[in-house]
Specification:
By secondary structure, this protein is α/β, with parallel strands linked by helices. The chain has a single domain, classed as 3-Layer(aba) Sandwich (Rossmann fold). 29% of the residues lie in helices and 33% in strands. It has 5 helices and 10 strands, in the order αββαβαββββαβαββ. The strands form 3 sheets. It has a 6-stranded mixed beta sheet, with helices on both faces. The protein has a two-stranded antiparallel sheet with strand order 1-2. A two-stranded antiparallel sheet has the order 5-6. Strand 9 and strand 10 form a beta hairpin. It is globular and about 50 Å long. InterPro entries: PRTase-like, PRTase_dom, Pur/Pyrimidine_PRTase, Xanthine_PRibTrfase. Converts the preformed base xanthine, a product of nucleic acid breakdown, to xanthosine 5'-monophosphate (XMP), so it can be reused for RNA or DNA synthesis. Homodimer. Its EC number is 2.4.2.22.
């Protein structure tokens, strides 16, 4: 998606060769016009798949998932990183290692909201090592639901996550695939 690539070049911040900050427009301060276009693109890509639920993980994917869900006219579920008093009863649980935070979380979704009748599209802001997506995939499979695929805003194609998830037979559509980046030269290269 050229619009997203151009925005990354303009307002993204590179740290070293592995960290790309997009917090000016995607996952801290959010450019709703841009995210609206992202939602339209995910609808174009997955619109014929019978999606009836969108699943993301707390917290950065929630806004993107919500705007995307408007185009599908379906609810959003977000996997919580901590069990709270608000979640009563049975839950699906999976472990996720956060690349950004460097820690392992138990993510949970109430069994009330995810079941065998669901056709689920995963949405997230980044794909790096694939741990978050693996955790979400496990939740979908534990629920007996059908995984339609994953919509990712930014994939770091030089890290193993995309290849790993695709090797599991999951359809992954990434709107901007970063081939390489370097803070010293302030350069970023996208995959064709």
């Amino acid at each position: 998606m050229k619009l997203l690539e151009e925005r990354i070049r303009k307002d993204g911040t590179i740290r070293g060769t592995e960290v790309l900050k997009v917090d000016r427009f995607l996952n801290h301060q959010m450019d709703i016009g841009l995210i609206n276009e992202i939602g339209k693109e995910f609808k174009r890509l997955y619109g014929d798949c019978g999606v009836n639920k969108i699943l993301t993980i707390e917290a950065s994917g929630i806004g993107i998932a919500c705007i995307t869900a408007q185009f599908f006219n379906v609810p959003v579920i977000f996997a919580k990183k901590n069990k709270t008093k608000n979640i009563a009863g049975d839950v699906y649980t999976s472990k996720v290692e956060s690349f950004t935070h460097g820690k392992v979380y138990d993510i949970i979704v109430s069994k009330e909201f995810l079941g065998p009748e669901d056709r689920v599209l995963l949405i997230d802001d980044f794909l790096a090592n694939g741990s978050a997506l693996q955790g979400l995939i496990n939740l979908v499979r534990d629920a007996g639901a059908t995984l339609v695929g994953a919509g990712i805003c930014v994939e770091k194609a030089f890290q193993p996550g995309g290849d790993l998830i695709r090797s599991m037979g999951v359809r992954v559509e990434s709107l901007a695939r970063v081939k390489s980046m370097d803070e010293a030269t302030n350069s970023i290269e996208f995959c064709e």
